[in-house]
Predict the 3D structure of the following.
Amino acid sequence: MRALVTGGAGFIGSHIVEALLARGDEVHVVDDLSKGKREQVPAAAALHVHDIREPLDTIVRESGAQGIVHLAAQADVRVSVGEPAFDAANVLRLGQDLIYLVSSTGNEIGGYWLQGILGDGYRIHFLRDVYFGSHIDSTLVALRPGLVLCNPACCC
């Protein structure tokens, strides 16, 4: 699988990148290096130094990403409240469709911002009122085209 990991130069992101590489995946890391460190990105991963608040469509298209692990974030909750565009989190890409989990860790405004950044070539589907305070990766996992694993304790 070709995976794109935002925030892949950070502590958690770099461990996810290592795990994906260990299972044989091709990995592209998108990180602006404002908090993450270049040396934490394994040499086998392609690093794109890029701010996720800017358009990602070229990187997504050129990388051929089949899945996106979105870990890029800022750590200050005050910024999240005052600048919701910083929090376009909780996204699962399934081809040209993106499922966006609206929860305490990803507000709806961030989803609309993401739609604006990606443009009309992608569709955002909001998953609302499922539960509070978790990430989409604990809810849905794309296994292959047409097959999604869903955590029944959360929303299925």
